[in-house]
Amino acid sequence: MRRLHTPGFVAGTAATALAVFILGGTSTARASSHDYEAAYAIGLRAYTYGLPLVTTNLTFQTMTSTNVSQGAYGPVNTFNSVRSPNNANSTTVVAPGATSLSSIAWLNLSNQPQVLHVPRVTDHDFVLAFIDPYTTNLVNLGTASNTPPGDYVVCDPSQQRVPLPAGTSRINVNYSRIWIIGSTQLKGTSDIPAVNAIQDQYTLTPLDKYAAGSTAPSPSVTSSNPSITSFPAPTGLSFFDAMDELMALFPPPSRDAKALADFASVGIGPGLTPSQDSHLSTQTLAGLRDAAAAGPAQIRKETTALYANDFTRHNGYLLGGFGRYGMKYNERAVISQIGLGAFVPSQAIYAMAWSDAKRSALTGSHRYVLHMATPPPTREGWSLTVYNLQGGLMTNSLNRYALTNASELSRNKDGSIDIYLQANSPDKNTQQKNWLPVSAGLGFEVTWRLFAPQPSTISAVINGSGWQPPSIISQ
């Protein structure tokens, strides 16, 4: 789960949602006519439906706006890898992982399939997650999936009968654009060369060149900062125009037919252009325009609702269970803003909190303890990370940004672990090992990542009857 720094729709979603969660209160728009009322209500539903699609497209545009690989940015059909650990100065993604290095590729399959090479990876866990334009996590290659090394031909729907070269395997995807989010375990700074060597072996080659015996060129990494274009988020009727254009490029799944029929009643649909539709009344257009303006507040409201719903069941956390949403459009929209590119639970379970067990906002002015009676049931470990409310890692003198299953943590006599979140170093040496620093006086959020949970435990973790992240207790 990574949140890219792209022009956002719902600025401060998590922080604002928390404020509403704690203090209460929302605003509503007042309608002046039947056309307006219908367009406003349907427009809000359409905004929620289309937000992940438009957000992912903005991410694609920004990250591929340079033809030179620079970290996660670079051209399509090429792996662009982050070569060093994230720290408090990292700005490519919001809520970056601190225990792995990322490798990003945007596939454009409109001309032909691409051949993905998966190397033999030893002594490191890794995943190559395929995300579609609607943020569905379609496929996962890697350690948890027991993926054999080899060459995989990625085919869009028009290419699924293309003959394959000998020795390759086919991966069918539902769209011509696929986002691959790669993550390779990093065991410390001394491990960087080994991880970089693994990253260099993730390659993409056009099928015709592969069939002719060519292989992908070595990654081209620049030492300078290339020009990267930041694309503005569409607003007003332009939001629905952009959404409709993208739905024409990436047709929605058939299960969404009922929602699409609802949207079509106010001129929203694949290939349509509401802003130019002379058949729409002035009041309908006004309702759509106001719905787009109210959309961000609607998503904040939905974030609040999800967090409140999970709070008691998951010890004060929003926990998922994400990556495949079906017709849960509200949840999909929320996660597109607080965790774009979330993986399915077999790869990772995420738990996020913005308040303590008494529903008070987390702040570096207080001290907190998390008592973990037993570790999470995972195959590939766990991590606990704190972020500021903009999603950045928090500056600290230790350069310690996460605690993990590999950290040298002090344990209580019964084997349990107490974790300390505070600005100042704890007094006891044993507590200092378990200290995750936060910034004095600043609000923050907490994120647990459970990597490759034990399959037999996933349902219980998600429904609240199994292992749960420890409550955040203010001292």
What does the model show?
This protein is an alpha+beta fold and 475 residues long. It folds into three domains: 3-60 and 233-307, VPA0735-like fold (Orthogonal Bundle); 66-211, Domain of unknown function DUF1254 (Immunoglobulin-like, Sandwich), CATH 2.60.40.1610; 343-474, Jelly Rolls. It is built from ten helices and 20 strands. It has helices at 13-23, 34-63, 192-199, 207-211, 237-249, 257-264, 282-311, 329-338, 429-433, 458-463; strands spanning 3-4, 80-81, 93-94, 100-108, 114-118, 126-131, 137-142, 150-155, 168-172, 177-185, 203-206, 318-320, 348-353, 368-372, 382-388, 402-404, 417-422, 435-437, 444-451, 473-474. Helix 2 (34-63) crosses helix 7 (282-311) and helix 2 packs across helix 8 (329-338). The radius of gyration is 23 Å and the shape is globular. Residues 2-7 and 23-31 have low confidence and may be disordered.
CATH superfamily of the largest domain: Domain of unknown function DUF1254
Structural class: alpha+beta
- Number of beta strands: 20
- How do the helices and strands follow one another from N- to C-terminus? EHHEEEEEEEEEHEHHHHEHEEEEEHEEHE
- Helix % is 25-40%
Q: Please tell me the total number of domains.
A: 3
CATH architecture of the largest domain: Sandwich
Strand content: 15-25%
**Uncertain stretches of 5 or more adjacent residues:** 2-7, 23-31
Key structural traits:
475 residues; alpha+beta; VPA0735-like fold; Immunoglobulin-like; Jelly Rolls; 3 domains; 5-stranded antiparallel sheet; 10 helices; 27% helix; globular; disordered N terminus
